[in-house]
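Section 5: illustrative case.
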């Protein structure tokens, strides 16, 4: 259920609830009967507000059933005989643009899935991961879009009229600004457009309520509008110019409580006919919001004054580093590039995601061609591709990319452990040579041009001990030699093996050798 709130001159809200009186109808299309039967038994469909009105084994058969049943939602497989899911989706959107399409996908069909998104599918489900909760979540998302797309059919003539006028104005048609319905609906001289991306929210209704309610202002009009071009909920706010700061401050105050929703706010404007101009601004801001995950309410003034840019990714160099097994250099290049790329907010989100999806594909192919065992990596690859595609922020993309890269290291390590690891030998040799110095993880990382956290993880993966434990072991072993073979005092030996704190030296010695340095000397010398 989705609630839209409109406020006129009174200080109370009039709540208009939009919900279908009938069940939301669904057609299932899959060439495997077991899949269709399984889906039918995942839910108590009618209890959840849905009804299966037909099923088909291919696209051609599905079109006939769709013509007969006019369903609200079609769930379709990708790979089918006669007419596949990709072609079926295009036909549905051409003939029945109001029908929402959900794709049922297997792991190896990502390119086809990405193509269907361009045709306007609402979501997709990986069949191997299909469960009741996930299925219901996707169905509800489709149902919400249906309600939003058809809100005008369930409201009063006045609201139908104003929504039609808003739609025409946004599409560039001339409208008579003196129309009574315009002046009655929007009696004030200042407007904002507020965009709400509830895809990030786990509780959409609660988010809507928290953002829009409790303005504590007598004169604020709120009219919802669903922008089909961006699947964005837009609220037209109309108020007196003198209340502008109050309205903005109240919005900012309310949105501080909701960090998981993507919100964007246009600059204020004074003429209703400018809605078409500012809807373009809100579409841009919504796209840009992907790059600013820490800003709850993004405005034009939040954007950097200079637009960041980045050089083209050097795929040839990256591939050469990888094939020459300079893995650290290649992967660090990807990480460094991702860090800079995440600031290039004018890049289309689809292009940004596509870049990292291609990187994931290329790495997987390179390792397979180099005879690495990529069995486990393949599983992580498809999971990462799915998560990257579904990500709402750059930070989420980075999180899933790093998860994939860590699995790459694991894949590489297994083979390296079988053949020896030259990089690890260099690290151990460096520690052996410099143990007596003030050696730190950060210092070693800087010497080898590694990120300290990456080096720590790398060391643990490739060695029995972590960095600190290994360094202490080397130092204490050298201390035992000096205790037995030299006349240096114990207070001199500590600094000679890298310990500036005598008590810490004694503590580590006893921890590793089971006795104090003096007891050790007495035992082996006297």
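Designed sequence:
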């Amino acid at each position: 259920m989705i609630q839209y709130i409109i406020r006129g001159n009174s200080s109370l809200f009039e709540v208009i609830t939009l919900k279908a009186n009938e069940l939301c109808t669904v057609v299932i299309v899959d060439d495997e009967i077991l899949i269709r039967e399984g889906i039918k038994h995942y839910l108590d469909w009618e209890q959840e507000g849905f009804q299966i009105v037909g099923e088909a084994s291919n696209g051609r058969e599905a079109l006939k059933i769709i013509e007969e049943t006019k369903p609200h939602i079609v769930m379709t497989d990708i790979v089918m005989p006669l007419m596949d899911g990709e072609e079926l989706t295009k036909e549905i959107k051409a003939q029945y643009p109001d029908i929402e399409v959900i794709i049922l996908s297997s792991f190896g069909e990502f390119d086809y899935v990405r193509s269907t998104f361009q045709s306007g599918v609402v979501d997709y489900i990986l069949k191997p991961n299909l469960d009741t909760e996930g299925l219901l979540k996707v169905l509800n998302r489709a149902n919400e879009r249906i309600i939003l797309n058809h809100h005008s059919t369930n409201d009063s003539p006045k609201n139908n009229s104003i929504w039609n006028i808003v739609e025409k104005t946004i599409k560039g048609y001339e409208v008579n600004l003196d129309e009574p319905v315009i002046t009655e609906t929007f009696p004030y001289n200042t407007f904002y457009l507020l965009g709400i991306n509830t895809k990030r929210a786990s509780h959409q209704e609660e988010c809507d309520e928290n953002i829009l309610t409790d303005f504590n202002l007598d004169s604020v009009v709120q009219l919802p509008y669903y922008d089909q071009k961006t699947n964005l909920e837009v609220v037209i706010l109309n108020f007196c110019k003198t209340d502008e700061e109050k309205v903005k401050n109240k919005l900012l105050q309310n949105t501080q409580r909701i960090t998981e929703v993507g919100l964007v706010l246009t600059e204020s404007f004074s003429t209703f006919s400018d809605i078409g101009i500012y809807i373009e601004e809100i579409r841009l801001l919504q796209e840009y919001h992907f790059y600013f995950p820490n800003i709850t309410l993004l405005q034009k003034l939040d954007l950097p004054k200079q637009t960041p840019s980045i050089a083209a990714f050097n795929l040839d160099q990256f591939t050469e580093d990888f094939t020459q097994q300079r893995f650290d250099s290649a992967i660090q290049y990807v990480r460094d590039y991702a860090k800079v790329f995440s600031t290039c907010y004018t890049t289309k989100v689809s292009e940004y995601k596509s870049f990292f999806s291609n990187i994931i594909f290329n790495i997987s192919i390179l390792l397979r061609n180099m005879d690495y065992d990529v069995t486990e990596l393949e599983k992580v690859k498809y999971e990462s591709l799915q998560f990257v595609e579904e990500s709402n922020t750059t930070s989420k993309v980075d999180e899933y990319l790093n998860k994939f890269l860590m699995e790459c290291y694991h894949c590489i390590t297994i083979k390296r452990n079988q053949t020896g690891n030259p990089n690890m030998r260099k690290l151990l040799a460096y520690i052996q040579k410099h143990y007596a110095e003030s050696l730190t993880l950060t210092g070693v990382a800087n010497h080898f041009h590694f990120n300290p956290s990456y080096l720590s993880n790398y060391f643990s993966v490739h060695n029995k001990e972590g960095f600190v434990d290994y360094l202490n072991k080397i130092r204490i072993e050298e201390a035992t030699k000096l205790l037995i073979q030299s006349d240096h005092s114990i207070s001199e030996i500590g600094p000679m093996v890298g310990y500036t704190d005598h008590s810490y030296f004694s503590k580590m010695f006893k921890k590793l050798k089971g006795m104090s340095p003096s007891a050790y000397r007495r035992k082996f010398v006297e």
